[in-house]
Specification:
The complex is a heterodimer of chains A (about 325) and B (about 240). Chain A has about 325 residues and is mostly beta strands. Chain A is about 10% helix and about 40% strand. In chain A, strand 3 and strand 4 form a beta hairpin. Chain A is rod-shaped. Chain B has about 240 residues and is mainly beta. Chain B folds into 2 domains: about 40 residues, no CATH class; about 180 residues, Jelly Rolls (Sandwich). Helices cover about 5% and strands about 35% of the residues of chain B. The two termini of chain B are about 25 Å apart. Chains A and B meet through helix 1, strand 8, strand 11, strand 13 and helix 2 of A and helix 1, strand 1, strand 3, strand 4 and strand 9 of B.
Amino acid sequence: MPIDWDPIEEGDKFNAGSLNDRFTAVHGEINSLPSTSVEAQSLSREHLDSPVVRYGSDNYHTNYFMQSGGGAEGYDFPGWPCDGDHPSSGTVWVDAGLSDVKDSGGSSISGTTSLTTGWRVAHTLDFGDGFAFTESGGNPSANAVSPDIEQVNGILVLANVYVEQLYSYAKGRLGAHEQAKLMAAIALSSSSGATYIAPVSIRYIDSETNTNNGRDVSVREADHYHIPHDTSSNPAQRQVHTLPRIHKDLPIRTYITQKDIVHLNPTSGPSTWKYVRLLLCIDNHSQTYREADYITYAEIGHTTLSVVMPHAQHLTDQKKYWFTDRT
Amino acid sequence: MAQIFPKHKIKDGSPVSKDEVNENLQEIVGEIQGGLGEQNWAEDTFTRSKIGESALIRMHTKKIEGPKLFTSADPHRYSSPSSLSSDGFGSETHHVKVPSNRTWTTLISFDVTCRSSLLWVIASFQQDYESRGRWYDFEGTERNGRDRFFPGVQYAIAIDGGRFHETVIGGTDRSNDRRGESYRHWRHAFTTDLIIPVTAGIHTVSLQGRMVATTGYKRFSDTQDFYAVGNRELIVMEMT
């Protein structure tokens, strides 16, 4: 809309009112700029901030191995690049199991004999000063966060775990393969290391996912490839009935919002989160048997973790708390 | 629009000419009517704090937690379908069963209100199974566990009920695979996605699945053998 103003003509009275009318016409235009007032292509990427608040990515292409159970079993796992129960040189173990993984109620799930312990960190992405909860209404004082923080409301996480092999057996019965799962999950960690799993991100793959057999051992023996193993003194163990090769990708895509970890008790839990992690865990026998009775191996081909905090609003399910970028 | 400088500087004590005032105003009016351009704002003028939360990307998500993870009563266990009662299937917080009658079933669904835009739809989920039955092998021997011919499940993203061929996990042509056009894995996680333009309005985005048939169209009882989907999530990014 053109600006409605008249130039001052010869003989016009030059007073405050006439000047104000003319300036008001200009103000009115500027205070509600129509598209015709802005040139095409005038708002370029140089004028705009990135739509991504934070981004991080990490990947491994080196095979690494996990073992649940342990102790000197004395049997070589056929095809396993290990000397006994130990990885040969050149292989990489994921780092030691986490010491402080929390369940959705805030209790530690490590340090017990349960098989769901032993979460290991495949990737850790550091988010600098971290991010925190704050109320969408803008009262972050409850969590001691600076009031000028930027608000994001979620973290888009893309992770892949390529599982090469997964094999489990009861100690002393190498030939009797038992079912196991490799679990993967996305977790958030505080700077002190407390790690909280986003429950809905948990994924898993079955050691028998390739097979066509049932749970009956005799069926498995009929269906599995037979891999000779002749170092055992026990004839029953000279032939290993197993199909440990998985060769499948385990993908995780999740958008973590405050809703996912609200159970983690932001009042007494960490006020800021510093790390996004990809965790792996061997979970055999549907928790029926204790770790001490079984040994499970997993070989992971490669893993990736990419994390994006988009500048976005969660419209469909707004909650009281939002993630907040503290920087 | 060029940067604006007053053409005439009006000095103290000097008489004001109408032409000088007119020309100074004309500088502003002419430029604004000609269009504000990139010279009129500084670099990094529009930082994220100046941009509305949904201006660049608008996120819509729906997620359902399948197993009850690490409950307070039993914090060290991860519930699989076999440990849930049959009543749990189909509820919002548990697994949803994929029926064996080969009909497409909605596994997770929600409505997205958006303007005319491009949607990037991502579905991520965990497949599990349960086998409570017994079956007979080639020799007629009764066996425990899952039927050896048990096929797999196809999955697809659907918008407003229409499934998209490009998102089908598995295949749409069974070829000579006697166990059907799907990945016949047992426990496995999958993801599939799609970028598609939609009209303004409310659209129902869903993930659907169906168990495929064997070549012999063998009947299975889903009280005995069945697949179930546990943790599942739909992520919709409204990108434009």
